[in-house]
Design goal:
This protein has 153 residues and is mainly alpha-helical. Helix content is 56%, strand content 7%. It has seven helices and three strands. The chain has a three-stranded antiparallel sheet with strand order 1-3-2. Strand 2 and strand 3 form a beta hairpin. The longest helix is centred in the last third of the chain and has 16 residues. The two termini are 27 Å apart.
Length: 153
């Protein structure tokens, strides 16, 4: 959610629906001093790759409803906005939390499913989905990213 807040901030503060790249970089790096110009460019590139913003004729605009995002007073994004979220790791974390077990146990169970039930013909993300379904652990918000990681493999 932090990345959405960071992306929404310049649009909400300027009350604009679209901004040029140089305006956004200026906002992040010089006006707010939240990050360097290189990091601002990285943020915009990552947001575009993840479908959070789009660029049309040199104008960037958010692909989400700005009214759904509130910017806390004193907000400053952390370096976490530059990290890619691995959907497989996130699902492992959820299973660990829900079942109150070690991560190594989840990975071992995932590997057993792959080896014993599918003769090694199942990708880890799919095995984790089976584990999550078995334990009624929500994963729907990760489904698209998991699917992309499987098709990319």
């Amino acid at each position: 959610m932090t990345i959405r807040i960071a992306l929404a901030a310049p649009f909400k503060h300027t009350r604009k629906n679209g901004m040029r790249k140089n305006e956004l970089v200026y906002y992040y790096a010089l006006d707010r001093k939240w990050m360097s110009t290189e990091q601002a460019n990285l943020l915009l590139r990552r947001a575009e790759e993840e479908g959070l913003i789009r660029q049309e004729n040199g104008i960037f605009s958010p692909c989400f409803d700005l009214s759904e995002v509130s910017i806390p007073i004193g907000f400053k994004p952390t370096s976490a906005i530059f990290e890619r979220n691995d959907p497989t790791q996130e699902l492992i974390r959820r299973i660990v939390q829900a079942r109150n077990i070690q991560e190594t146990e989840v990975v071992a169970e995932m590997n057993r499913i792959i080896r014993d039930q599918f003769d090694g013909n199942l990708l880890p993300a799919a095995a984790l989905i089976l584990l999550a379904k078995k334990d009624h652990i929500p994963f729907e918000d990760l489904y698209e990213a998991l699917q992309q990681s499987v098709s990319g493999s």
